[in-house]
Structures are given as structure tokens and as C-alpha cells.
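Every protein is a chain of amino acids, and every chain bends into a shape of its own. The protein below has been through that process, and both of its lines are reproduced in full.
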Amino acid sequence: MMKVLIVSSSEDDVRWITNILGEEEIVNVDSCTNSSDAIQLLAVSQYNLVLSEVYLPVLTGFDLKKLMDSFGYDIPVLFFTDKVNDNARKEVKYAGVIGCFSTDHLDVNLPSVLAKIDGVQA
């Protein structure tokens, strides 16, 4: 079973994404509201995917990815945000994040990302 960590300052987004992931029978979900808590959860549990809001309070999703890299976590990271523009796509690619989706399209794109990750780990 895949284990996914959702990092979002919005409880509504966490519920919505959890519902999307709940449609996939292969997923177990944990969540937190900031990057500091995410690092603590990563230290005590193994995840197959980190799904993070780009613009979090205090530390951004990019900061979270940098921290994960500095601690040696080799876990795919996928960002989501309200609006994705060309500049954000370039930053995401440079940061080593597997993608960045608009929240408007997350329900369509997320299942295919999960299938790719699950296929790699099978």
C-alpha cells in the first residue's frame, strides 16, 4: 500500500485531496499544515509521495523540498497551487519536483501520478 503525506495550510484542501486519494484503494494518507511538521513526520514514517502546497506559511514547498534533500529523503514530491504559470514550472523542474498541478486539475492528474509511482515501486 502506498503512503502519501499531504502538506497544506488549508484543511479544505486536505479533505478534498484525501477524498481523491481515497478513491484509489492503494493509498494511506497522513497530513500536516506546515513544512516543519512534515519534516517531523518524514523522520518517523516512510512515504511513497509527498504532496505539498507550494505557498505554505513560514517555509514554502520549495523550502520543504530543500530540507528533504538535505536530510537525504529520496521521496517524490508533487506540488499543487491555485495557479500554475511558466515561471513556476521552471522552478519546479529546477527543484527536482516531479510536477506542479493546479488545484483545478488535481482530481484529474493525481490518479495518473499515483499509478506511475506505484508502477515504479511494484
In short: The chain has a mean pLDDT of 85.
